[in-house]
Structure formats: structure tokens, C-alpha cells
């Protein structure tokens, strides 16, 4: 159930006597309004204005006097921040935050251009780290999702530069993104910021694995730490949004393993030392289970099926069967949870995951001897049977819940005997 559904159908329920107006308001209070989607106009406006200014200045940069260069940098930076503060005071947060974001972009450009102006050769990323610090500070001051997005993107760009150009990993940048923005997310867990932050942390973790030349499966230890943080978040929507990118990464990995996993191609890059890896992943699992138990979310524990280390199995048939079992079990858990929560979006996702697992099973196991028409026939029968079962269960649940709801609304239960008519008083 969602707030939008309650807002559209709730008044009709009150009119029909199913619930009272007070109950409708109490239901709405249980589903707070979701944060508005991040507006594209301020983002695109900031980027386009910033890029146009940078391209114009860059084309004539060498011909400008040094004093004019500094004046342009300081003037554009100060002007963007001043204009943003002006529009915020006038009650226009979209334009105001967009201009503040432009000022943040110009701040980074000023660092780079000033370094070129005085021919400063950078052997570290201390100047660029200051750019990330500014982004974190502005995010806290203004509480803007646009600034959160820009800060995470800046952190990803700085870390990519460090890895590619300097051959090192900036732990300060990673700490600012994961720690600084992580605390911001904990206090303001809206869905957009949660998803952006999770994706940014996963990017940082991936670059760390590259720098350390570690087995790529170590990536899932920090990735599932992000997932476990979502289990501890009191806001269910914000916590689930944070868990989205780690789950997508885990599913794509398991899907790829089921499709392409062979011993001679994956053993050297996927199999870390068994005990250290399982110990680290087990510790994260324990943290996640504790959070689920504390927040009453043990129903999402089957998400961890995607982290079963099937890559330790030999390639070929054993690996294919094991990974397909995991994919089917995970799809089934999503469908069961969607049915229990009456969540149509999760039901759609579960059906898509079920079809994807069935396609992999066909191409990996039965392509050589099962006719394609028979495969599609079996797949269709399975989905129709699943749809029939879920509808039947839903009807049973609604039928069982109808008498209490009817009694609460003052109507007789469906199977209740009709009240006997009262004898009218006699007037002699």
C-alpha cells in the first residue's frame, strides 16, 4: 500500500462507511509523503551555465592577464553563491540551490585553473579533496538533494583521477563521501539521496578493489555494509532505497555467474581465500540480521541469497545448477514478500526476476534438447499458475478480513444472521 493509493481511494472508503475519517488520517500518517523527485531544470541549468562559462574562459584563458583571470574566478564564484542566497531568501529553492550548485562547480574549476595559472604540479589530490569538503559542507548547510548529487559525483570524479592519474586511492575522499554524506543520509533519508549515495559508495569501493589488485568478490563486503546500514535506518523507504544499488550489483554478479561462469575463466579473479572472505562476509551478515531484527524487517533476509559464494564450486553443471537455484529462490522470495505486503511494484519485479532465471535455465541447461516452443509453453504455464495462486490467496485474505472491517463500520458480517424485527408498540 502507498500514500498515493490512500489519498485517491481513502475518501471513497469513508463515504462507503468502510473506515472513518479519523482512521483515514491515521493511515495517511503511517505513510509520510515521499520527497519530490529531483528537478532536472536546476541541475541542467547549473551544468549548462557552468560549462558555457568554462568553455568561454578556457578558449581565451592564456590571452587574459593574470589579474583578470583571478578576478573572473573570484567574481563568478562569489556571484553564483550570492545569487543563490538571494533566490533562497525570495522563497525559490530550486533556482537558489541550482545557483549554489553552480558555485560549487566553479569552486572546483577555480582550484584547477589556479593550479595551472601558477604552474603548480600536483602530486597529490589535496586541492581536489578540498572540493569534496566544500560539497559536504554545502550539503549540510542548505539540505539540498542537488548538492548531495553533485558532492557524490565530485567525490567519484576525484577518486577516479587519483586512481588513473596518480595510481593511488584517496582515503580522505572515500571517508568524506561515505562518512560525511552517510551521516547526512541518516538524518535525511529520502529515496533520491539514498540511491545516489549508495551508488557513489559502490564506485569508491570498486576503485579501491582496483588499486589493491584484490579479487573482485571482495567488492561485496563494503557493498553489503551499505546494505546493512539500510537495515538499521528507521525510515523504511530511505533504508530500502539505500539497499537498491548493492542488491542490483549482487544480482547482476549472480546472473553473470550463472550465464558465463567457467572454471578456467573465473577462478583467478573471483576466488579469494575462503576463510577470510567468509569471515568478513559473515560479520556483515550478522550486522544486517541484527538490524533487520531490531527494525522488524526479517522478511527481507532472503536478499542475502544473492551473496552465496557459489563461485567456489567447479564450473560447468554444478555451478550452473547452484546459481539457478539461488536465482529461483530469490525470485520466489520477492514474489512471496510482494504478495504478503500487497505491493504491485515488487510483484512486477519478482515476475521479471522469475522470467530472467527461467531464460538462463533454458539457455544453460535445456537449449540442446528442449524445443523452444515447449520452453515458452512451460514458462507461460508456470507464470499463469503463479498468477492464479496469488489471486486466490489474495481473495482468501480479503474474505477473511471482511467481517472485522464490516463490524467496525457498523454493517453486519456476511454470514451473520439477520436481526429479528421488533414488534411495534401497541397503542390502545
From TrEMBL:
Keywords: Membrane, Transmembrane, Transmembrane helix
Segments of skewed composition (Pro residues): 414-428
Region (Disordered): 406-428
Chain segments annotated as transmembrane: 37-61, 67-88, 95-114, 120-141, 169-186, 198-221, 241-261, 273-291, 311-335, 347-367, 373-390
The DUF2157 domain, residue ranges: 12-147
Keyword Cell membrane: no
Span of the signal peptide: none
Pfam families, per database record: DUF2157
Matches recorded under InterPro entries: DUF2157 (IPR018677)
Protein name: DUF2157 domain-containing protein
Organism: Hymenobacter glacialis
